[in-house]
Amino acid sequence: MDMFIDGQFTKGRGEARFDVRNPTDGSIVDQVPQAIEMDADDAIRSAKAAFDTWRLRSMVERVAIQKKCAQAMRDAAPEIGAVLHTELGRPLDACLGEITRSADLLDIYAEEGLRLEASFSLGAARGEKTVVTRDPVGVVIAITPFNYPVTLLLFKLGAALIAGCTVVAKPSEDTPLSTLKLAEVFFKAGLPKGCFNVLTGTGIGIGAALINHPIPRKIAFTGGTAAGKSIAAAAAGTLKRITLELGGHSAAIVCDDADLDRATSAIARHGFANTGQFCYRVNRVYVMRSVYDEFLTQLLEKVGKYTLAPAGGKGDLGPLVNEKIYQNSATQVSDAREKGARILIGGARQTGDGFENGFYFQPTLIADATPEMLIMQDETFGPVIGITPVETAQEALFLANDSRYGLAGFVFTQNLALGLSLCEGFEAGSVWLNDIQRSSHYVPFGGMKESGMGREKGRYGVEAYLEYKTMYLSYEAPL
Ligand code: NAD
After folding, report:
1. What pLDDT, in 10s, does the model give residues 189-235?
2. Ligand 1 atom closest to the CA of 325, numbered from 1
């Protein structure tokens, strides 16, 4: 596929293209252009021209167009889902779910647009009024990762468009095709040209041209903490607004009175979703010693049922997207092994028919993990969970918070007062008690500490694309 700029597909001005591969077997699915600086400039100028009219459309008009895009997305779900399945390797059903769930978010953002208000101060003197309005921030650069390419783009795009902004998206080099497909679907559904442009390329190759360009006013980024920090530093050069959704290393605390069946079901489901390539997954677990063995037995039984889906076949978990992401799991497991942890299940690359050419890592549980092990310190982004016994809930909370990350936390106890205290004590942007649902579209989502800055989703997400403006009006009061 080609890039999508100013309402049409284009090869761009450079010569270079790169391969997009199917992670299940390494085969080449397609090629896309490596954007160059002139392409970034073209896309940004198209977005700026579109912004000058899109921002002036009434909210009702923008809402109507956004809802048409949401419906078009649902109608095209089989097509976009199939593209996503091929570039990401995740089982098809889950890919289809990502498309329809993201369409719902588009609708919710549209409804939030209808409810936006500014204010009017009553404090002014006679013959004066102070009016506060909210303006769209401007052209937005949306940079997204590979793991949920459609959802994480829609977190930004849906909020930006309804606020009156226009967008230049730069999807992950691993998974650019679903974003390109989406741009075509939205354009055909009636989104004006230039409102949503897509550039393809590596972060290193095109990131600086986007971030340093003087026109865009905001960078909305989801990805790793290291990339987020360098983007924030670069954005400071022109003081662009930033929203950063970064890495996570989320902990679960299991108390001695927890419903272990419920806790192990939730942790098994959430820890291995998308083969662990999931920012707010359960990465590490602190379990009170009196229930530690029983917890391990139940979790092992549930994780043991997961199957890996070979190339062209069916199963619960797909491969990891590329060798770099695969290597995190392999390194953390060998580190834990060397330092004396017990590998309860998995711990190795999957081999055999249908697995030879993909980066398949077996679902893995590491018991008796200690704080200095990599699994308990840094994001895995793979199908591996570390588990540590603790003596008290206080110790568990201390260990859970003893991390540079702060994206999510999970608590399991039937004592509501203890559960609430642990939730309150967690240094994390979202906390779950006694079950783990998907994050809701209606409430803020984002991280504390090095897991990010700002919030997406719901009203809070839209507000991140608006700036306050205060107007002081003076007039001769005739009466
Ligand atoms: P990544 O940081 O390698 O890349 C993310 C995107 O940023 C890609 O499009 C990449 O090309 C681009 N990029 C990288 N360096 C850049 C730079 N210097 N300038 C501009 N763009 C640059 O992340 P990934 O491997 O694609 O995704 C995995 C990471 O994303 C994990 O750390 C995960 O926790 C994080 N993530 C966070 C959330 C969240 O909501 N907090 C959600 C999903 C994923």
Report:
1. 999 999 999 999 999 999 999 999 999 999 999 999 999 999 999 99
2. 25
> Percentage helix, strand, coil, to 5, in the chain?
40, 25, 35
Q: Does domain 3-246+451-471 have CATH number 3.40.605.10?
A: yes
Residues annotated as part of the active site = 245, 279
Measured between alpha carbons, how far is 221 from 70 in angstroms, rounded to an integer?
Answer: 22
How far CA 306 is from CA of 24, 228, 270, 275, 421, in Å, comes to 17, 33, 13, 10, 34
Question: Residue whose CA is closest, atom 20 of ligand 1?
Answer: 207
Instruction: Assign domain 250-433 to its CATH architecture.
Output: 3-Layer(aba) Sandwich (3.40)
Beta strands across the sheet bearing 3-5: 8-10, 3-5, 196-198, 166-170, 139-143, 218-222, 241-245, 452-453
Domain with CATH 3.40.309.10 in the chain: 250-433
Residue 24: pLDDT above 90?
yes
The model's pLDDT over 115-133, given as tens digits with 9 standing for 90+, comes to 999 888 888 899 999 999 9
Does the pTM surpass 0.85? The reply is yes
Q: Whose Cα sits closest to atom 9 in ligand 1?
A: 172
